[in-house]
Every structure is written in structure tokens, then in C-alpha cells.
Design brief:
The chain is of the alpha+beta class and 58 residues long. It has a domain of 31 residues. Helices cover 24% and strands 28% of the residues.
């Protein structure tokens, strides 16, 4: 695998996949996206559940 650019996208895809598998391969409806002035966050099992910040582009 060869990557270039400011982000290592394959590493991000692999981390997301492994995290999904570790959680038992849950249905897509258990994930969501929150967007406000402070940024973007992906959540699992509701906005009060597990949350990840979305990296800023640029």
C-alpha cells in the first residue's frame, strides 16, 4: 500500500472498520453525525453515547 497527501486515508478506513468489528458489526442506524459551530462528531448509540471528532480537512 502506498499513500500520499496530508491524510493517510487507508489507515483511517482500517481503524473505522476495526472499530465497527469490535462493536459487533452494528447496524448503520446506530451511528449518526452531529454538526454545530464547534465542529463535526460521529456518534454511536445516540449523541450521548460514544463520540469521535471528525478531522478537519486542509
Amino acid at each position: 500500500m502506498w499513500q500520499s497527501g496530508p491524510r493517510r486515508l487507508w489507515g483511517e478506513v482500517l481503524a473505522a472498520y476495526l472499530g465497527w468489528r469490535e462493536r459487533g458489526a452494528p447496524e448503520v442506524g446506530r451511528f449518526g453525525l452531529a454538526v454545530d459551530r464547534s465542529g463535526q462528531r460521529v456518534w454511536f448509540d445516540g449523541p450521548q453515547g460514544e463520540v469521535w471528532a471528525v478531522p478537519a480537512e486542509g
